[in-house]
Amino acid sequence: MYIYNVTTNVEETAHDTWVQWMKEIHIPQVLSTGKFLSAKFSKVLVEEDMGGFTYSVQYTVQDKATLERYYKENAPALIESIQRKFAGQLVSFKTELEIVDEYFVQRAAATHYLFTYGTLQEREVQLGVFSRPLNGFEDELPLYIISDDKVADLYPTLKHTGVKEDVIKGQVYTLSHQELEKADNYEGDAYERIQIQLASGKNAWAYIAK
């Protein structure tokens, strides 16, 4: 993923007209090209020696090839429209950023602990199920083992033994109620969600074969 950033310093006399035009005309036009996934329009909080006001627009794009297509197919006409309307009233420059990784803060509404020991630990699965990667912590589930019997001969499940030496290491994630329902849908009818107590003392949910 890439970010196409355009930073603009606009003169005070054109400021209000330009901001309204950006929000109502220009940014929607750029997004309507179908090249970008989203846009953020921000004011830069700095006093400029040259005067005026500075803003940044950050457009998210899937890959460099799509951005190159934008430069070739759409950018010339859009730049011309800016120059025609605000000639001599602003200065812009562009920056390309490559997204290396993304991090998310847990949501305040996330109140359910989910103990995982299988595919829900995989980043790609998390993105598919929850539309975000999960930040978890390690914990252990005592009195259980991973069963030799697999669901559909492929997927692991828990087996309660009651033996104090038995323990399963896993990852615990904090989910909202809506995300827990998404996990239910992902696990499907072959699993049921049960309440368990972890070695840390936390109460959590876990999935076990029916």
Structural notes for this entry:
The longest helix has 18 residues, at 15-32. Helix content is 28%, strand content 36%. The protein contains five helices and eleven strands. The strands form four sheets. It has a four-stranded antiparallel β-sheet with strand order 2-3-1-4. Strand 10 and strand 11 (203-209) form a beta hairpin. It is α+β, with helices and mostly antiparallel strands and 210 residues long.
Task: Report a brief summary of the structure.
By secondary structure, the protein is of the alpha+beta class. It has helices at residues 15-32, 64-73, 75-85, 123-130, 177-187; strands at residues 2-10, 36-43, 53-61, 90-98, 112-116, 136-142, 144-146, 158-160, 167-175, 191-197, 203-209.
Shape: elongated
Task: Work out the strand percent.
Answer: 35-45%
Q: Give me the secondary-structure category.
A: alpha+beta
How many beta-strand segments?
A: 11
Annotation keywords:
single chain, 210 residues, 36% strand
How is the secondary structure organized here?
Elements: E1 2-10, H1 15-32, E2 36-43, E3 53-61, H2 64-73, H3 75-85, E4 90-98, E5 112-116, H4 123-130, E6 136-142, E7 144-146, E8 158-160, E9 167-175, H5 177-187, E10 191-197, E11 203-209
Antiparallel strand pairs: 1-3, 1-4, 2-3, 5-9, 6-9, 7-8, 10-11
